[in-house]
Amino acid sequence: MASISIDRPSSAATTLRRKIESGEFILAPGVYDGFSARIALEVGFDALYMTGAGTSASMHGHADLGLCTLNDMRQNAEMIANLSTTTPLIADVDTGYGGPIMVAQMTEQYVRSGVAAFHLEDQVQTKRCGHLARKILVDLDTYVSRIRAAVQARRRIQSDIVIIVRTDALQKFGYHESLNRLRAARDVGADVGFLEGIRSVEEARQIVTDLAPWPVLLNLVEHASTPTVSAAQAREWGFQIMIVPLVTLSSAYQAMKKGLENLKETGLPNTAFSPQQLFRVCGLDESIQIDSAAGEASLVDLKHHL
């Protein structure tokens, strides 16, 4: 039997790692389900971010208070990551869902799911959103053991998945403790630093300077503790990644509420969005191409009726 040579494309993790190593700035909008991810891909973003708060809201209808399990987060991340094999997905993994064994298992599951990067934090397992008060953190040794377990798991399975380390220490312990935690995580092999809840422009500039040349991520959560800045400003200050977790959630809430209020008031829908548009956003044309290439005509025939 003749051997078949296949040129396999780089994994999304490898793609993201190369972008970071080359100094490219990465802007990743927050998405929370398949439809929001499809829209972000349609707009043309080069990376996506799966928000934990959005996953909790969409899967459970609940605030981000640690209700999501590893299976919840991995399932959502896998579905989003596999909508595009070329657009890297950065995903939340909360606290890693346990001790070193669970963190290692989480790392392996996210790698198999096609996720390009994840961020791991230093709250206790019953965590809460980073922009809520009264967070409880684990000690430095426990935090470092989580990071080390993720790094070792990545090496064992020879993956390029990018490990982003987040600290929530700023609110309770201040800047210097936060910096100490990020440096300790960097020293055991983490790839990118993430200071949650940055409180000022000066603090944003300082963390980039103090961690240079290590890449740093900016989490832009509007109407919270972090000042609203543009991607251009974040890039100018030296951040290499900016995630915007609420951009699709906020837009969806406002648009859905307006449409529902109109329906309740008038009894009539008020939308120009057709089923055909929905299906095309969700990959109908690509599915038709696959159907046609395999010699099946059912979806090709459907196309002519849209």
UniProtKB/TrEMBL annotation:
Pfam families: PEP_mutase. Belongs to the isocitrate lyase/PEP mutase superfamily. It comes from Penicillium cinerascens. It comes from the Eukaryota. It catalyses: (2S,3R)-3-hydroxybutane-1,2,3-tricarboxylate = pyruvate + succinate. GO terms for molecular function: methylisocitrate lyase activity. SUPFAM superfamilies: Phosphoenolpyruvate/pyruvate domain. The keyword Transferase does not apply. The keyword Cell membrane does not apply. This is Methylisocitrate lyase. Keywords: Lyase. InterPro entries: ICL/PEPM, Isocitrate_lyase_ph_CS, Pyrv/PenolPyrv_kinase-like_dom, Pyrv_kinase-like_dom_sf. PROSITE patterns: ISOCITRATE_LYASE (PS00161).
